[in-house]
Amino acid sequence: LTLLSQQFSQTESWFHRSAGLQSGSAPHSQLFPPAEGVMLPPESFKNRVVFITGGGTGLGRAMATVLSQLGAQCVIASRKLDVLQQTAEDICSRTGNKVHALQCDVRDPQAVSHCVDQMTSLTGLPDVIINNAAGNFICPSERLSPNAWKSITDIVLNGTAFVTLELGKRLIQDQRGASFLAITTIYAESGSGFVAPSASAKAGVEALYKSLAAEWGRYGHRFNIIQPGPIKTKGAFSRLDPTGKFEKGMIDRIPTGRLGTPAELANLAAYLSSDYASWISGAVMRFDGGEYVSMAGEFNDLRRVTPDQWKMMEAMIRSTKGS
Ligand SMILES: CCCCCCCCCCC/C=C\C=C\C(=O)SCCNC(=O)CCNC(=O)[C@H](O)C(C)(C)COP(=O)(O)OP(=O)(O)OC[C@H]1O[C@@H](n2cnc3c(N)ncnc32)[C@H](O)[C@@H]1OP(=O)(O)O
Ligand SMILES: NC(=O)C1=CN([C@@H]2O[C@H](COP(=O)(O)OP(=O)(O)OC[C@H]3O[C@@H](n4cnc5c(N)ncnc54)[C@H](OP(=O)(O)O)[C@@H]3O)[C@@H](O)[C@H]2O)C=CC1
């Protein structure tokens, strides 16, 4: 069984196989196929402990899978213990490496401290911390109650801060280095209407991580950020595109013509958390198929202009004399 698991971890995983061309992708997305398989060498995370918040579902689950395939002992934590346990079992049965499930509501600093106590007994302190847990929903800002604002900002900003400070302090005390990674979003930079609490909280997370990258390097701690563009997960799409009507328009504005895949994100997270990235700290890695710059550029809509229309417009421009 162990041999089989090892062979499996060196080739491909169940979710990589499902990462083919998604429906709704543009034809040119064939030129940007999502790479299958795990990128780093096998056992890159052997003898490493990885702690992932929100590791039971979506992107957190994908990151736990890849890191487990690379030899890590993973600890996944969130509110729903049954979901975490099922994920832990699934991953462990596929990779042969231990995955621990711990219940933790990151909004509650005491729960976070208790979770870290439990992890310390199970695995010791982690070498890699991935702050991935989040909450979000689309809502016109004038409809937000104070509690709606608080529910998102408490998970995203306070939750990340509680986890990071609790683990950071204990690691410093034990004179242990670590890699911290936060999953934010491209609109942490631009802000975005209709998700103002999420945008505000994610921007706060980025400020926290850049601050600590500067402050805690002396303790052997690295802090990096991934800003993903759209990657289809139930958690995100059910709350941000509940009718499914916006997906096509979203793909149209992504220059690579498709959504990202959990496997691609997981490989990037693994790289940034690995020794291969030990000189990367304070970095913000946009991971969005080009969506951000595509939405930002004033003239980018000119992509719709046909060659004949260009001929006509060029003639008009060239015929202009003076101002
Ligand atoms: C042009 C359009 C393009 C569309 C693109 C679509 C796809 C885009 C993909 C790109 C994504 C980019 C970024 C993604 C970022 C993410 O974070 S995605 C991850 C999302 N995952 C989750 O949210 C999982 C966890 N979420 C939850 O558990 C819940 O959703 C919640 C609400 C965050 C927290 O749950 P809980 O604590 O149980 O909270 P409640 O008690 O239910 O609610 C607390 C208050 O919030 C109010 N509320 C809840 N839902 C809404 C809503 N939909 N609208 C308004 N208000 C809401 C609720 O009423 C409570 O307030 P009150 O007590 O005052 O009533
Ligand atoms: N998918 C996408 O397109 C994008 C996602 N992101 C980011 O990626 C990350 C993962 O999102 P995704 O996988 O799509 O969505 P999911 O909804 O699947 O993931 C969110 C996770 O957070 C956990 N969580 C929520 N509240 C809490 C809490 N109070 N305490 C502990 N854990 C909590 C949830 O578990 P539980 O319910 O068990 O607590 C869940 O596992 C998030 O940070 C999100 O902002 C960013 C940009 C794009």
UniProtKB/TrEMBL annotation:
EC numbers for this chain: 1.3.1.124
Keywords annotated in UniProt: NADP, Oxidoreductase
CDD domains, per database record: TER_DECR_SDR_a (cd05369)
GO molecular function, one term: 2,4-dienoyl-CoA reductase (NADPH) activity
Record has Signal as a keyword: no
EC class: oxidoreductase
Stretches assigned to coiled coil: none
Leader sequence segment: none
Gene3D superfamilies for this protein: NAD(P)-binding Rossmann-like Domain (3.40.50.720)
GO biological process: fatty acid beta-oxidation
Record field: catalytic activity: (2E,4E)-hexadienoyl-CoA + NADPH + H(+) = (3E)-hexenoyl-CoA + NADP(+); a (2E,4E)-dienoyl-CoA + NADPH + H(+) = a 4,5-saturated-(3E)-enoyl-CoA + NADP(+); a (2E,4Z)-dienoyl-CoA + NADPH + H(+) = a 4,5-saturated-(3E)-enoyl-CoA + NADP(+)
Pfam hit, one: adh_short_C2
InterPro entries hit by this protein: NAD(P)-bd_dom_sf, SDR_fam
GO cellular component, one term: mitochondrion
Family indicated by similarity: Belongs to the short-chain dehydrogenases/reductases (SDR) family. 2,4-dienoyl-CoA reductase subfamily.
Name of protein: 2,4-dienoyl-CoA reductase [(3E)-enoyl-CoA-producing], mitochondrial
